[in-house]
């Protein structure tokens, strides 16, 4: 049962919604092009788009939040967080490598069920609050920052996979336009701007 069906709407494929023969035209000056039939999706900038996506992606949050054990996730105050969703940006929170892999597996299954693929070029793991170590493999682990002289703790040792492919571990990650680092400080974003130098995304 899909997200829309759970809310009382019959589950249909996108092609089943084309009975009204929705068409679009492009205006150039005072003239219009020939009609182009819309076979799927919504028009560019249509306010219905984020609402439909919210209904769709809600199923992923439900699956992650329903996973066992019940204490999996990160406790922040009185709130137990397992995932953060903003539009099509998804952050998964876990307190152990095993929990994180479990959540990744849930995402993989969700994507398989709905014929989607995870873009591993834009997907990374960042370990926060880990002890330092001298793992020799660290130099090849982080794909954003240079090798740390003291190693990167369990980030250099643990391995996470998505659909059988390794998910890269990084020391910094950009989320909603802000660079976060594994120390959860603002230095990655604020320091370059205070010095007048480019941030990692601009360098």
What order do the helices and strands come in, and which of them pair?
Blueprint: H1 3-6, E1 23-24, E2 27-28, E3 31-32, E4 36-37, H2 48-65, E5 74-76, E6 79-81, E7 83-86, E8 89-92, H3 97-113, E9 124-125, E10 160-162, E11 165-169, E12 172-175, E13 178-181, H4 187-195
Parallel strand pairs: 9-11
Antiparallel strand pairs: 1-4, 2-3, 5-6, 7-8, 10-11, 12-13
Helix pairs in contact: 2-3
3D architecture notes:
- With 203 residues, the protein is of the alpha+beta class.
- It is 24% helix and 20% strand.
- The protein is built from 4 helices and 13 strands.
- The strands form 6 sheets. Strands 9-11-10 form a 3-stranded mixed sheet. A two-stranded antiparallel sheet has the order 1-4.
- Helix 2 packs across helix 3 (97-113).
- The longest helix has 18 residues, at 48-65.
- The termini are far apart.
